[in-house]
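Each lists sequence, tokenised fold; shown next:
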Amino acid sequence: MAQTTSKSALKFVVILGIVSLCADATYEGARSITGAYLGVLGASGFVVGLVAGLGELIGYCFRLFIGYLSDQTRKYWRITTIGYALNTIVVPMLALAGTWQIAALLMLGERTGKAIRTPPRDVLLSHAALRLGGGFGFGLHEALDQIGAVAGPLAVATMVSLTGEYRGGFSILLVPAVVGMVVLLIGQRIYPNPRDFEHHTAALDSQGLPRKFWVYLGAVAFMAAGFADFPLIAYHFQTQAIATGNTIPLLYALAMGVDGIAALIFGRLFDRIGISILIIAAILSSLFAPLVFFGDINLAVLGIVLWGIGMGAQESILKAAVAAMIPPEKRGSAFGIFNTGYGISWFLGSVLMGIFYDRSVNVLIIFSVLVQLAAVPILLVVNRHESTD
């Protein structure tokens, strides 16, 4: 029987982090070139934005049902395993896609798999993370996650350089997909009941979720809507010759490396000063769009760094805040609702930015900056609620 000490909780976070490392190496490696790949297969900027946004919409909306299902069945491990299998197995199949329509369907399948595994996985992770400190626990997991997000694009870049085409990049991703599944099954066997890590949980005063949760979700919706997905950025780099097919994955790897470092730093800061640190992250990430879409390669690199900071802060803080607000028996549903709201906002923002890109890059930039900054006053309200609780 696995121990439930803080040291054991740390080991559990690391195991899930390694699983996420392998999964991220698989699908983030693919996402580093899917935008450019769709362009090569004949898709337009609108199609790239639509596919990226629709994938997020389907994935995040499905999490609403999966989160509720995982709370009702308590089959967190089983649902997580099914999701990881689908999430990673379709990625190497992109090498066989002959049209952008087939590639788009496979991309949607990958997002569906991620939707299935994310709410129950986050519940499993939250038990150990809260034992260590929510921000640090989720931040450590995200940092490990991002090692894979760096390694995947680097492997893809190497294969694209060697083979001269994107298909080779997708083929190599079969390796981390298999390794991740093996580690997941081992972790499930060692820690069959992760909830034992958590001794003190949040109290729920009513049958629903607290008002603070809904206000917080409103702020996050604005952040998601204004945050451009990387496929659109990659499409911009490809079509405007800002970066080549070999260097686009390297820029994505840079963003993922910054993401991992930012997750640890902002996670620790969240444990110390609370939700107010997310306000700083929102302001910093709002500056990426002018640099990425207006600048040359040098400014674009700086924009990618700010984009990575925004991603890292969101991945560590957003989930930690939800875990701290909600008790275990409602946490799957809360993560499902939270991810659905985030995904719908991301979808609407992605579609709009795809349309704006084809018509006016200036409008895209203004939209991205203003919508992200709109989250700041709402976060101030959430911060005041935290101070009075």
Q: What stands out?
A: The domain at 6-192+211-388 is CATH 1.20.1250.20 (Growth Hormone; Chain: A;). The chain has a mean pLDDT of 84.
